[in-house]
Amino acid sequence: MIDPRQPEGDLNTLPVLATIRYWWWWASHDLAYLKRVGQTGRIDARLVRSIAKDYGIARGIRKEKNDLDGEINAERATRIAEAVNRHHNKFIACDVMTDRFNLCLEIVDKLSRGSDEHDRLTHYDFVSGVTKLSWFIAPNGWTMFDRLAAESLGIKSGTARKKAAKFYERLIKSEFDALAKEMNAALEQDSLASEHFHAERIVDQYLWLSATDLTGRLLITDKIGAFLDAIGLEQSRRLLKMGRTIESGFGGRLQDLVSERHKTSRTNY
Fold first, then answer.
1. Tens of pLDDT along 252-268?
2. 50: phi then psi, degrees, rounded to nearest 5
3. This model's pTM is above 0.85
């Protein structure tokens, strides 16, 4: 059994916890989605519906009034996928986060525009949803906007689009892109990190965990500890080694991203 009190199983450090938590999520969800997009070059209606459910953004997509289960219908999911796919090449070519965010806003505006409910595909503002869907199209150098991740940067007030704009501006000033590239390079030889594994999302997890209250983090730690127990000693050691690579090489820079209000000790909660 993995003992988090021991150095080899220390889940009480945010870089280690963020790394393993994202690997678990990636293996369970993102890997399959990224491979499908990689094969087709597009996001499709099924992916829109699955990602919306997994990432908690389904509530931002308008449902049919007569649908008691609140499911996203295929037509709306298809139209949302098409709106995102139209920006595929622009997303890939865009190397400045604020410029890419402006592309996301174009999609947000299109999806919420319409003279009647059938034409309006989303509730205003589907900002977080579009930044998440677009990540699967072009994940390199990009991260999803999330309320908690923004709070860890000290951004709490304003509309979704205003908070998101500040979020990406601050990530640029913090040299997020350079940090993500170096983290990806550090994990390049790790067999647990394939071509579809993106360290950008470890940063995302770190920010998210930094803004999560102590009770929430302890629940996450317990869940990840149970996961490590379940996969066996050899696999868990490999994941812990990956976490320590991120902690030893980038722990300080990750902490520097977080506003003073949310900063924790470099080693413990």
1. 999 999 987 655 444 44
2. -70, -45
3. yes
